[in-house]
Amino acid sequence: MRKIAVVAAGGTGGHLFPAQALAEALIARGWRIILASDERVAGFAGSFPAEMRIGLSARTFKSGDPVGMALAGMAIVRGVLQARTAFKKIDPAIVVGFGGYPSVPGLLAGITQNRPTMIHEQNAVMGRANRRLASHVTTVACAFPSLQKAPPKVAERAVLVGNPIRPEIQALFDEPYVAPEPDGPIRLLITGGSQGARLLSELMPEAIRQLPEGLRARLKVQQQTRPESMDAARAIYADALVEAEIAPFFRDMASRLKSAHLVIGRSGAGSVCEFAVAGKPAILIPLAIALDDDQGQNAQVMADAGGAEIARESQLTVDSMSGALAKLLSNPARLTRMAAGARSIARPDAAERLADLVEKTAMEARR
Questions:
Q1: Residues 14, 19: Cα–Cα separation, whole Å
Q2: Which domain holds residue 352?
Q3: Is the pLDDT of residue 174 over 90?
């Protein structure tokens, strides 16, 4: 067998990051990796460890938009034909898709050429692209025990492997959770995605300002904040006499996550899995506009394990967040229990599990 895997991914980091983790795991096993995506992603994914990038025609559409649907259909057909031509030359042993519309042409080309195919669903709710193709691929892998909106037969045969995460976060799995000491510092890490981050940027400083003085004096806050909100956040923390580090982006997230006593952030699949592997109690704020409430269902998995509290945007206020923080930060025993709950759903070896499944799928197809 020629150990060539086509990885079909793109659209967002939520699709590309686990695809890259799989690519690195397979390369370590002697595989060659080809990235298939739309022209835009294939051009800028410079750090993706692929020896070749195939740019394919692809396009998404909105429900109820017949013109958009027609244009998307034509773009996908072109992409499938492009992928089929490329696959005849490179003869991949398997095509692995990670969701999002850029993955569709590559997967359809693999399916129509009767090649082994596989999808990995990062969220607790199966995305639209994966949902449409799942019944036709050889193997389905998933990150969470539940796989909502998947066709029943697909959900039954899905293999739970977890969500591949960054190696530096994976290393935190062996670090024990240490609750804050009485009267000692409390380290609070606030993250936020690019979508809807204004809510976190502006609400969290106000909520923390309302905490009792004794708690505020112990806090050491690290917060990712939109650039236009940084000055206001700094002013509020200074007025509240809270030690705070504010930045649009933290590159050393692993070290910050390691030292955090509580994390607050969105509940994208990658974030939830990273918080779980690090064993950190969390307050999760699902993105209200997320399609099919995938973030809400991701958060629910961690909440059901006892590792998180969920704060829905529709019910979130400065007062409600301040009250939730006061209760948690005053209860180190509760934080310790939540840390154990978070870690109970962690799968730090997800990339290796996924690589095992890729090899198994490719090998069984040859028999």
A1: 9
A2: 4-164+348-366
A3: yes
